[in-house]
Amino acid sequence: MQIIVKSAKYSSIPDPDSLLISNIVYPLSKTGDAIFGLVRVLGKPNNTRMRLVETIEDRLRRFKETLGGDVNVPRRFEQLLQALNEDISAVMQEEKRIPLSDFHVVIGVINDNQIFTSGVGNLSTLFMHRSAKQRFVIYELEDQFKGNEDITWDKLFVSVLDGELNQGDIFYIATRISAREITLAEMQDILVTLPPSGALKRISQHLNPKTAYGAICFQVLEEPEAGPPKKINPLSSIQHLDETQEQTEVLLGAQKPDFAKWVISITSPVLKKLSAPGTSGTKSALKQTMRLLIRGTAALIVALITAGAYLLSIIKNIVSRTPAAYKVAKNATKKAPALKNKLQEKLNSFKALSPNTKYASFGLILVVIVLAGSLTIFGIQRSNQKQNTIFESMIERIIEKKNAAEASLIYDDTEQAKKLLDEAIALLNTLPIEKKTQEDRISEIAAELETVMLEIQGIEYVDVSTIAQISTDDTCATASQINGVIYCLTANGGIFRVNELDKNFSSEESAKGSIGEVVMSANKNNDLVFIDSNKVLGLADIQNKTLNPIVSGTGTLSSIEDLLIYNDNLYVLSAKDEQVVKMRPRGDGYEGGTNWISSLNSNLDDARSFTIDGDVFVLLSNKIIKFSSGIEQTFTFDNVEPAITDAIDIWTDVKSEHIYILDRAEGRVIVYDKNGKLIAQYMNDELKNGINLIVREDNKTIVIMTATKALSFAASHLLK
């Protein structure tokens, strides 16, 4: 037998304008040796991002060409990483830099049943090793690739992982996907059940059509050796069968029943106790008698069972041959004595026995039946007790890890808590379910582990209440809050006030000047400023119920994603210009504006929204960038699970200690403190329809505006 490695790759990118994914597998031999790589670059594809992907692909292609003949693969792999570090450093010096957190890659090589791999970022990387007991030990390798102080654009690949591949092992690399689409346990079940290509397709079927997914999977198998069958010694084969009989029974469960061994396994504990030294006289004689009786009974049971099995096989054989042997049997029956006469002879023989002999026979049969039943019940109870002991021992280990994870949370060690909880979940998935009580117990523990996992991730599923709903055919295009009252502007310039007492939107009759469709708005004292579809700035006078254009420099910008009034100045976010423009007020509106950002390392072409508390926080689809006095700051926010993919609105102010983000893809509001620590994640599917985020910290509530509703829920982190 020789080991072969089967491989498959899969990719789905619904929106190529939002990220890049490249998965590479270059076969090296017929046994499955291969070079592989998975690259995921976040953000809108630009020259920098595309060059990084091309650099990885080109180096792996050239690496394949160098692996001919007798070469030192580990040494060549180290040289590949060194060359990649130099190439990527050169790209970043020539092109506009992107954040290191946008770049996620795992590359490696499989050669002669060994694997060498390296990477950076947080791609999902699983190594599933099948043990001798046919159970999988799961290693999550992505923690080895996450960023640390040693990783920079000048030296991206700093560590190498290596290991040996054995039959049944599975190696899986993929882009991160939400646990709400498919859990880790479900994914593992698919990977161990299906071949690589089928497993990746099956996983993709669980995902939202809008979810980007790229993956590579390797599975180690054994294949019969090629060539003609080898001649073998029949005697040695029988000897080998005897030697491996117990192992075959354990692994395959297909061995024929061994009744003698079964009876011996049941009676041996009793015989062992009866053979124990330390007794004499009458007790010793009684023990010897019991031993003889048990052994004799056991032998009789085995003989009866064996005879019964033999008789059944004969009957089966006779039945199968009945049509062909009917005539022969008929002739034989005529020559043989009648069955009735035979039975009568046996009965007469039994009647001729003395009464004592008859009673002894009945007594022996009764003893055999009672003893056989007792031994059977004892064996079943013993087996059940052993299984229950193993089950409860595993449950205790799982609970210990769960309690340890909860203890780690008390000290804010979320990494350790997650590691312990992952181990507990892996153990739970190995438990067999043989009884309804065990199934209920496993379900109970799984629910407890899920609760701790939600606590680690800061997730709270909230109940939302509808505080107002539009009763007309109008829809809200943008909403802002003025002195505690929420106002909504429709695309055609209508003004609606959210009436929380009557739970409706009350229409305010309005007159409008020469403006296009309203796109976004921000509050300005007791009024609203807005941007229309022609990038014209307008003023919505709430008291006079009018909408008119005002002077500003917004028309010169390439795009407008958001606007804010701060210290009476107008700030406008432009993604295409990668700039925040500051416009000072003047009598008829605002000045043309000046660029506020003076130092930028990241790419803002994916900017969605921004907020100001003295510093400026710019929200991209998947992260936040902080600026102070126009200069980008090195600032890290805790990673969240599921990862942010479609954030659309952000809020904070000088008085607040928190930063709030509306992530429409996951239907949640994420809360950070201003040091970047994750505080909470509030989830509800209705939040997926949100267009604006309004935070009321004084009331300890959060309001999400949709096109037709105002939804509210309690901010429990403010209640602590």
What is shown here, in short?
36% of the residues lie in helices and 29% in strands. It is of the alpha+beta class and 720 residues long. Strands 1-10-9-6-7 form a five-stranded antiparallel β-sheet, covered by helices on one side. A five-stranded antiparallel β-sheet has the order 2-3-4-5-8, with helices on one face. The chain has a five-stranded mixed β-sheet with strand order 11-35-34-33-32.
Strand content: 25-35%
Highest-level CATH class of the largest domain: Mainly Beta
How many helices in DSSP terms?
12
Rg over alpha carbons? 38 Å
CATH superfamily of the largest domain: TolB, C-terminal domain
Gap between N and C termini, in Å? 63 Å
Question: What composes the largest sheet?
Answer: 5 strands, antiparallel
Indicate the overall shape: elongated
Structural class, judged by helices and strands?
alpha+beta
- Overall mean pLDDT stands at 82
**Domains, number:** 4
Residue windows where pLDDT falls under 50 for at least 5 positions = 229-241, 246-256, 277-282
What share of the residues lie within helices?
25-40%
Strand order of the largest sheet: 1-10-9-6-7
Q: What is the CATH architecture descriptor of the largest domain?
A: 6 Propeller
Q: According to CATH, what is the topology of the largest domain?
A: Neuraminidase
Q: Number of DSSP strands?
A: 38
Keywords: Membrane, Transmembrane, Transmembrane helix
InterPro entries: 6-blade_b-propeller_TolB-like
Transmembrane segments: 292-315, 359-380
